[in-house]
Design brief:
2 copies of one chain form a homodimer.
Chain A (H helix, E strand, L loop, with lengths): L6 E6 L1 H4 L7 H10 L7 E5 L3 H14 L2 E5 L10 H9 L3 E3 L1 H13 L13 E3 L3 E3 L8 E6 L2 E6 L3 H18 L10 E6 L3 H12 L5 E8 L2 E8 L7 H15 L3 E4 L4 H11 L4 E5 L5 H7 L8 E7 L2 H8 L3 H7 L4 H14 L4 E7 L14 E8 L2 E8 L4 H30 L6
Parallel strand pairs in A: 1-2, 1-3, 3-8, 13-14, 13-15
Antiparallel strand pairs in A: 4-5, 6-7, 7-8, 9-11, 9-12, 10-11, 15-16, 16-17
Helix pairs in contact in A: 2-6, 3-4, 7-8, 9-14
């Protein structure tokens, strides 16, 4: 694959350079295009200064076949992209009534009068196609000139993302610049570091000419992307086969094709078993529950959660016996197990996951330092606990503990799925 | 302020362009430098290709007084920054024993032998200062040449961030490139849109020559940054005064100087009252609790939380009367209030915040559509409920509802602080 077209991204806005706002466009647009076989070659962020925009846009335009700009299309004084770009392209700005009607309608809907400054947004480079903005006033623009393409998108992600998906990608597909289907195979792994994963997969991937393997490690997970330098020799079907070989080789360290969250993988399995799930968490403080409740449809299996920051809560809301906390401490395998079984009973849930530990920076002792986490898991066939230790700051320990708990449950579910199906009276498949 | 030095950032790595990994360096480095009066003028992301690195690095080096690179310093084959850059600077690579000792020690500590490929990391451009990496093997580099500065930092944020803070910033300070104290005044507002905030502040800020005002809106909050074009005429002290005038003008819409989370502002107030706090949440599913538990030291005031995804849970763990849910529904002002009072009792907490609503995409009805949220709040002086409606996807509704609940509690706390101090027998100050 790899179309012979150079793609560059140009982000606009002082706020990105001053560290006021994260630039999330590169990762989003990069992923959406790569999914369809088009890779971004270069990206830049330029400040709201006409001379800078002129310089870097014209260089980018002369180098590339496709330039995508983000931001700078609003009505305020520092939004000068439209003017600068039309000057460089040699296309005069013309007033567009369709945009005016759209902007006026949006102001009407919120019972406001359109300010005069908003008329600025109605000017477009001559010949540009308008991408109407469903979630804001600034339209996107699509310009074809000198066998090159310019796509201009508004800055706010909730305006940009649907415009990219619903208007830009179909247009690029029509023009034959994007594949009409996915063009790489991605999968997610857990519990293996990036370099040892690379080693384990080398045997499969190295002998294959033209195969590209990219890794991205994040919070205990590593995502792998298999793509091809030559779509004829290594078509998507072949990439899928290679993906399946990797899956075989990795066993339970293979999480899923695509990159679903671990919570989603657990959710799918529990749903397929027609069972329910509850959570009891202490040091992760809602993060574990939140990773479940981000999933649409989770309410079918998720009963709820108790966040027990104090011993009293563990005793009163989760029925952890006082004596267990006295004897073993709140951060112990015994308490983790009691939290899991208590939650199972209180929520009448088939599966429960519990976490107790010290996320720091305070708490902990010499014997049980900050970063010590006990995970508890209760299923129809038994109860388990596991200890893990992490280093890092509070938020990072919370994230790592959440990932560890979810991954552990995923492995347990996978391993005992058949047994549990039998235990719960459902025919195993 | 604004030193007369052009600053450019150059990020390296295919994974950033393929959408495999978020580039979080720009926002982090941008903020850290701006805090001390140095603004990034331009940023770019370049792929791991020697020709591309050569081209874009040399252009950047010729334009700028300070270039900061991120990534590409590792031991693998695609880490070629060191080689390419030293070629352009005309500085030969020399082997550095200090780095070797450091890398070997790190491998020893984890009982591994250093692989031969890691020797690559021990070569540095002649004359470069080494920035030892506390959290990884790849050292950072600090090069002064032709009255210009080059800072090369490793890619992983947990390696880059401490190196920037502890080694790079002190060096830039010593060289007089950074102010030795903070050089802007930032504050956070809530409940006002960006454009009407700008209007309200114009009266104060517009007459002041040389004052720069930057806005950044995010999830219902707007951050404002006041900085100065001329440090002599508008010193930090004057910026602080202007900040205080803005605070007066904004009343309760002013959240705080700096940019603490709303949860932190609420936490500080509750802690100053020596009271405790609990949460009962349904549709926000742990996000509200999690925003509290991200705060170090929260365990002093936070008792815990119940996440009640089902009516049974609301009834059994929060003592919401069955009849209230029957009569008014689970998404109603009455249920929100009952959840808040139930949690207050169960957790023996002085303050409780509750949220119930439909985050979608399913659920809801014609009368109570997806996005409808009821917030409940219970304090020593009373119980309240408020309805809010948001549009967007599930995660965005969860975030907006969490922000709304926290901001509402913040306003209530602020308004009733004196009364509550009296009610609870503490002398009001």
């Amino acid at each position: 694959m790899s179309y012979e077209i150079r793609v560059e991204l140009l982000g606009l806005g002082d706020e990105l350079l001053l560290g006021l706002r994260e630039n999330s466009h590169l990762v989003h647009i990069g992923d959406k295009l790569a999914e369809r076989g088009l890779e971004i070659d270069y990206a830049q962020v330029v400040k709201d200064d006409p001379e800078e925009i002129k310089r870097f846009f014209s260089e980018s335009w002369s180098r590339s076949g496709l330039v995508i700009t983000t931001g700078g299309l609003g009505p305020t004084a520092d939004d000068i992209t439209r003017e600068t770009v039309s000057e460089i392209l040699g296309l005069p700005l013309v007033f567009n009534d369709e945009i005016l009607a759209h902007v006026e309608k949006r102001f009407e809907r919120s019972n406001k009068t359109m300010p005069e400054t908003s008329r600025k947004q109605c000017y477009v480079p001559e010949g540009a196609e308008i991408l109407l903005n469903q979630f804001g006033t600034a339209p996107g623009l699509f310009v074809q000139k000198d066998d090159k393409l310019l796509v201009m998108l508004p800055g706010p992600p909730r305006e940009l993302q649907p415009m990219l998906q619903n208007q830009v990608i179909p247009k690029l597909e029509e023009l034959g610049i994007l594949h009409d289907s996915e063009s790489y195979v991605g999968f997610r792994t857990a519990g293996v570091g990036e370099s040892s994963l690379e080693e384990r997969l080398d045997e499969i991937t190295e002998p294959i000419d033209g195969l590209r393997v990219a890794f991205c490690a994040n919070q205990g997970l590593v995502d792998v992307r298999l793509s091809s330098d030559d779509h004829e020799r290594l078509p998507l079907e072949r990439l899928k086969e290679i993906g399946h070989e990797c899956r075989q080789a990795l066993g339970h360290d293979f999480v899923s094709f695509g990159h679903p969250s671990l919570a989603r993988v657990v959710f799918r399995t529990v749903r397929s078993l027609e069972k329910t799930l509850a959570v009891a968490e202490s040091c992760t403080g809602g993060l574990l529950s939140n990773s479940f409740t981000d999933i649409p449809g989770i309410s079918k299996v998720f009963a709820g959660s108790v966040i027990s920051y104090q011993n009293d809560t563990k005793i009163q809301l989760l029925d952890v016996p006082d004596v267990i906390i006295q004897q073993h401490g709140a951060v112990s395998a015994e308490t983790a197990v009691a939290m899991a079984t208590g939650a199972a009973e209180r929520f009448s849930a088939d599966y429960t996951l519990s976490v107790t530990g010290f996320a720091g920076p305070d708490g902990g002792s010499r014997a049980i330092p900050v970063g010590t986490i006990y995970i508890g898991y209760c299923s129809p066939v038994g109860v388990w606990s596991q200890k893990v230790v992490f280093h890092g700051d509070r938020q990072s320990i919370k994230r790592r503990a959440t990932t560890a708990a979810l991954d552990w449950m995923r492995r347990k579910l996978f391993k005992y799925k058949a047994e549990e199906l039998v235990a719960s009276g459902v025919d195993a498949d």
